[in-house]
Amino acid sequence: MFFKKKKISARRQHVRDNISAEKFTRLSGFINSPFPTALFILTLFIILVIAILALDTSDGQVFRPDAKFFKPYREVIALGTVVILVCLGAAIYINHYQNRIISRPTRLTALAGLFLILLVITKIGSLAPEWIFLATGSAVISAIILTIAYNQRFAIGITLFYCILASFAVGKIATVELFLTMMAGVVTCCFSLREIRTRMKIIEVTTMACVAVGITAAALGAIQGRDMRQISYSSGAAAAITIAVGLVIQGFLPIIEKVFGIATSMTLMDYSDANQPLLRKLAMEAPGTFSHSLFIGAIAEAAAEAIGANGLLARVGAYYHDIGKMNKPAYFVENQMGSASRHEQLSPAMSQLIIVGHVKDGVEIAREYALPTVLRQFIETHHGTTLVEYFYHEAVKKQDDKQSHVSESEFRYTGPKPRTKEAAIIMLSDAVESASRTLTELTPTKIEAIVHNMAMRRLQDGQFDECDLTLRELSRIEKSISITLAAHHHGRVAYPKAPDEPDEKDPLQKNNSPKPGPQ
Fold first, then answer.
1. Which domains does the chain show, CATH number per domain?
2. Helix 134-149 × helix 176-192 angle, to 10°
3. CA nearest to 418, candidates 455, 451, 366
């Protein structure tokens, strides 16, 4: 029996082909995305956590000759279910509040490694009842490190998931007493630690956490009807471990910064010192750029604080954003000191290569001087993918019929675009400050117009597409920049002349007057 093949219309076949191509594109996009790596790290983390929690450390079981190192398989299965649910909840939380961790496998690995190390420490503490409050110390470590590396909300949320796992690590059943004691330390640390500008900040934070942990442990011990000796021991041990954690983190702070690719406020303060080798070199080789950078720092800091961003980071980032100009300082107008422009002898295309090249040169100099990654972003993104307008228009003017059409893409910076609010503020501050230098007379009204026009041009050009900057925040930034610029370009009242003071001669008359002879 023969079946006739059903005919498919060309239109339907075209739709089917498009659907297949779309499915393939989606699959290819997923495979090439960071998600497969993140899923692999999550799976490996879950397996290792289950292995750690499955170790039987109850009642000194490990030290017995006939010891069974792992708990009964039914208990392990139940623990595994809880661990999977907790880890999936943590993964969803990370994806929602700190999606950049998933896109950076090194950060995800560092976070997973931190939790595994802390769980091992907690498990070791479960070998003896008197060491059980090591779990409190591990929770405080997690809270402080995550607050430093990310923010307070993220630190509280993720450490909450860790506390659940740590509670299971100390015994068969998670105790409410231990969990609440850990959370008392975690919440205190997260809310009292916003930034580290002094060397004593971590000690101050852990001291406050020590008080909170001690009071919580004592209150819970009294609720359970323990005698004063037991209450004093448990609350004292928890408080002492919390203080010890502060000292440990203080010593390991440089390593924490390097592992998580961050710079604390204390480190940023060090890099803001004008005696830093790189800033001293910039001041010597490109004094105009150095002065420009200092002014941009003042503008950016005020604008960042106006929207609740990191003002210190914006200021220090501004100091280093133009270090690439040190290689060819004479090709940038702020360093020409009234001399003829070297670009007059060059073609617009060659001038564009020199101007755009200062970004790449800056990144290389930053690596040479081991500048923190958080500061390098300002060098890479302070021009985004904007057009080098002056030389583009010069190229358009000079082209003739024999030459090919001048493309805008050839006269654009290579990017990337700003990825943080602070980087976007630096971009706008840099553009506005440069534009304001072209005007002979600056009034507050003119300054506001320049700032608004430049902000709208950057917005319409898509330069703020990759940073979570809102229109309301952009309006506040414009207002702050306008105020700072107007304050900088303030007027002065002319001093009155003395009655017997001779009038100044015309400059041309001075130049044409006969020069005095030798005396």
1. 15-261 (no CATH), 267-488 (1.10.3210)
2. 30
3. 455
Distance between CA 76 and CA 457 in Å, rounded? Answer: 60
Q: Which residues contact 30 (CB under 8 A, 6 or more apart)?
A: 36
Q: Do the Cβ atoms of 122 and 54 come closer than 8 Å? A: no
What counts of helices (H) and strands (E) characterise the chain? 21, 0
Helix, strand, coil % (nearest 5) of the chain? 70, 0, 30
The model's confidence at residue 515, banded by pLDDT at 50, 70 and 90, is very low
Please say whether the beta carbons of 103 and 95 come within 8 A.
no
Give CA separation, 174 vs 49, 57, 220, in Å.
16, 14, 15
Rounded distance between C-alpha atoms, residue 67 and residue 71, angstroms: 11
Does the N-terminal peptide bond of residue 416 adopt cis geometry, omega within 30 degrees of 0?
A: yes
pLDDT digits (tens, 9 = 90+) for 364-396: 999 999 999 899 999 999 999 999 998 998 888
Contacts of 238 by beta carbon, 8 Å cutoff, 6+ apart: 133, 136, 181, 185, 213, 214, 217
**Residue whose token pair is 């050009």:** 461
Task: Provide CB contacts within 8 A for 163, sequence distance 6+.
Answer: 139, 179, 182, 183, 186
